[in-house]
Amino acid sequence: MIKGFSIRTGLRVLAAGCAVGVLAGFGANLAPARADTAQPAVFNAPQPPVIMPAPSTLQTDGSAFALPAQWQVIWQSPPTPLLTRAMQRFANRMSVVAGQEVYVENAKKGKDQNTFPIHIQYAREASFPAPTMREDYTLDVGPDGIALTAQGPAGVLHGLASIVQLVRREATGPVMAQAHIQDSPRFAWRGLMLDVSRHFMSIPTIERQLDAMEMVKLNVLHLHLSDGAAFRVESRRYPRLQKISSHGQYYTQAEIRNLVQYAAERGIRIVPEFDTPGHSFAMLLAYPQYASVLPMNTTDRAEINRAALDPTNPATYSFVRELYAEMSALFPDPVFHIGGDEVVAKQWTLTPRIVRYMQAHHFATPADLQASFTNRVAQILKADGKIVMGWDEVLAANVPPHTIIESWRGPANTAKAAEAGLPVVVSGPYYLDRLLPASAYYETDPLDTRKDAAEAQAAAQTTGPGGTIATPTDTKPDAPVPPLTKQQKTLILGAEGALWTEVVDEDMLDARLWPRMAAVAERFWSTPQNCVPQTLYGRLAMTQDKLDLMGLKSREDADALLDRLAAGETQAPRVLLSAVSPVRNYAHNHEFLQIRHKQTATEQDLNTPSDIASPDSFEAERFNAEAAAFVNGKVELKPELERQLTIWADNDAAFHQVAARHAALTPALAASTRLAALARAGLAALGTERTPGWREQARETLDAARKDIAASSSIHVVTNTPQPAGDLIQRIVPGVEALVTREGGLTLP
C-alpha cells in the first residue's frame, strides 16, 4: 500500500479462478463503447473481474465504475525509460480494450482534480530482465484512483497487465472493476518454446507473441533457432549457415538485438537454442566436414532428423566453440540452450572411424560418447560465463552443477534431474503441437509425477531406422514415479509451453498458440488452488477477446486461411469448424507417421480444413456446458440448445454445396455429415424431430464419433490406428451424449 493513498472499502476475498461461472464468460460483450467520458460512478450490477493468470489473492465486491478518459501517473520514484515506454503501451491497450481513447500522462506539480490518479511505487533492479527478477505486486483499484506497488519493474508490468484486464465494455460504456490484488508467481520460469527452424516466423509475428506473453505474465521466450530443417541466425564467422541452411529466411544480427530489446521492454528474457550434436542437418549441409556420416543423404526428408555432428573430430569443437561464442554475444541472457536431444545411435555406431574412437577411449555406448561431447560443450560455455541448458538427454553427462535440465520425456526425468541436484524446467506435458485442448494441458501441474511417461517416450522415438540414443528403457516409462520431495520441488524452476512447427506455418501461429498458451500461463503463475478447470473456458473466451483486440491475429488469420479454401463462401465451413477439432497426438503430422512407419517422408500440405480447425472451440464448449446444465435442472436453456443444434444440423446441406465448388473442402465432407447426425440426435433427445428408431441411430452416431476421438487419444494409439476422414473430430460429443443419455433415456457405455 502506498502511504497516504487508500481505496479499499468493503471488498471480499474471491477465489481468483472462480471469478466467472461456467457459462458467464462465453460470448464476452466487446461491442463499441460510447465515446464520451464521465466521472467515475459505481455501477450497481456486480460482475466479478476476470484476470488471467488468476492472482494469488483477489478481493472484490464485483462492483465497477465508469472508466475515466484522463489519467495521471504519480511516480513515487522517477520511472526508468523502460517503464515510461510501458505506460505508453498501457495507454494504447486501455484505449483498444475500452473502445475509447484513454490518455495517460505523468503528473505535473499540483493535483489535477479532473484526472484519474494512478500511484506507482517500485524498487529498482540492477539487471532486468533476469532470472532472479522480483515480480510481486499489490494493486488497489477504486473510483478514487489506483495504487500499484511492486518489488521491481516486472511487478509494475504485471500490475499494468492486470489493470487492463479489469476493464470491460457495457452498453453504457467501458467500466473498470474495483479490486484489491496481492499477486506473485508460483514459478520463476514461465516460458514459451517456439520452433522457428521448421517454419520461419517473421520478426513482427514473434513480436505479436511477445505482446501477448506480457499480458499473461510469461517471462521467457525460448527460441529454437537451429534444427535439421534450417539455421535461422546470421553468422559472420560461418556465413554459409545463412547462405545455404536458412533457405533465404533468417534473422540478421541487428534484428536479433532489436528483438532481445523488444522482449526485455516487456519483462521477457530470450533464451536461444542451437541444437547439437543431433538435429544438426542444417549446420552440416553448410559445413559437411563436421558430419558423422559422409556423404550426407540430402534426398530423404527423414535424414533431416538424423544427421549428427562428429564428436570424435577435434575440429568439431572449434566449430561449436566459435559459433556458440558468436551467438552468445547476441543474447545477453545468462542461459544458453545446447539441445542435446534425439541423437540417432547409428550415426556413430555405423561409422568405422567413430567406432574405433569409442573403442580407443573406452566409450561402451553411444550415450557415453554423447556425454563426453555434452561435457566438453558445457565447459566451453561455462568459460564464456553462460549457464548451460539442455534437453533431459544431457543428464547422462557430467555437466556443471548449475546446468538446467529441460524435462520433456516424462516425470521420471524430472525426478532424475532433481535427485542429481540440477535445476529443472518442465515442458513435456505442455507440447502444444500435440493439438490437445486447453483443458488437457491445464489439468497437469508441473510438479505432478503421476502422469505416465510412456507418451513422452513414444514422442521421442520419431527418427525412424536407428532409433535415438536415449531408448525407452532409460526411464522405464511404465514404472510409477514417486512424488517429488520438498527439496526436489525447490529445484523446479518452472515450465514451458512448447510449439514445434512441423505442421504450423506463420499464417497459423497465433491460432495454434492462443488461447491455449493463456491457460498454460495460468498453470505456471497461479497456485493450484486458483487453477479452476470448471471456469477455464469462460475466462479463456474473455481473455482471448482482449488479446485479439490488442493485436493477436488468431481469428484474422483463420478467416484468411478459410477464405483461401472457399473464397466468398466461408459461412458453412465456419459453422462446421465451430464444432470440430483436428486429430490429436501427432495424428495430423503425416511426416511423423511416415517416419514411424519407415515410409518415405513427404512435405505436408497445410491448406486443409484441419489446419484451420482449433483444438478449442468456444462454441462447442459453451454447448457442452449448457447441455450439462440443462440435464441438471436448468430447463430454461432448452431453446438455446435447440437453436444451436438446428444450426449444426442444417449446415450439412450448405457445406456440401460449397464443397462441390471448392475442392479443398472435400476432406471435411464426412465430418460435416457426422456433425449433422450428432445434432439431429441431440434434437431428438430434446423431443424435436424424433423419428422411429432415433435412439439406435443416436447410439450408432455417438459410438462412431467416440471411435474417431479414440483414434488419436494417445501417441501409441495414433501409430497404428486409421484416422477419421479429413483429420477432424467432433467436439460436441459430451453435450449430445448428456442430452441423449438423460433426456432420451438411452444407456450408453
TrEMBL record:
Q: Which residues form the Beta-hexosaminidase bacterial type N-terminal domain?
A: 50-183
Q: Which UniProt keywords apply?
A: Glycosidase, Hydrolase, Signal
Q: What is its EC number?
A: 3.2.1.52
Q: Where is the composition biased (Low complexity)?
A: 455-474
Tell me the active site: E342
Sequence ranges assigned to domain Glycoside hydrolase family 20 catalytic in this UniProt record? 187-527
Q: Which InterPro entries match?
A: Beta_hexosaminidase_sua/sub, GH, Glyco_hydro_20_cat, Hex-like_dom2, HEX_bac_N
Instruction: Give the stretches traversing the membrane.
Output: none
What is the enzyme's main class?
A: hydrolase
Q: Which reaction does it catalyse?
A: Hydrolysis of terminal non-reducing N-acetyl-D-hexosamine residues in N-acetyl-beta-D-hexosaminides
Signal peptide coordinates: 1-24
Q: Which GO terms describe its molecular function?
A: beta-N-acetylhexosaminidase activity
Tell me the segments the record calls region Disordered. 451-482
- GO aspect biological process, one term: glycosaminoglycan metabolic process
| UniProt organism field | Acetobacter pomorum
Tell me the SUPFAM superfamilies matching this sequence: (Trans)glycosidases, beta-N-acetylhexosaminidase-like domain
Record's Gene3D superfamilies? Chitobiase/beta-hexosaminidase domain 2-like, Glycosidases
Per its UniProt record, what Pfam families does this chain match? Answer: Glyco_hydro_20, Glyco_hydro_20b
Q: Which GO terms describe its cellular component?
A: membrane
Protein known as: beta-N-acetylhexosaminidase
Family assignment from sequence similarity: Belongs to the glycosyl hydrolase 20 family.
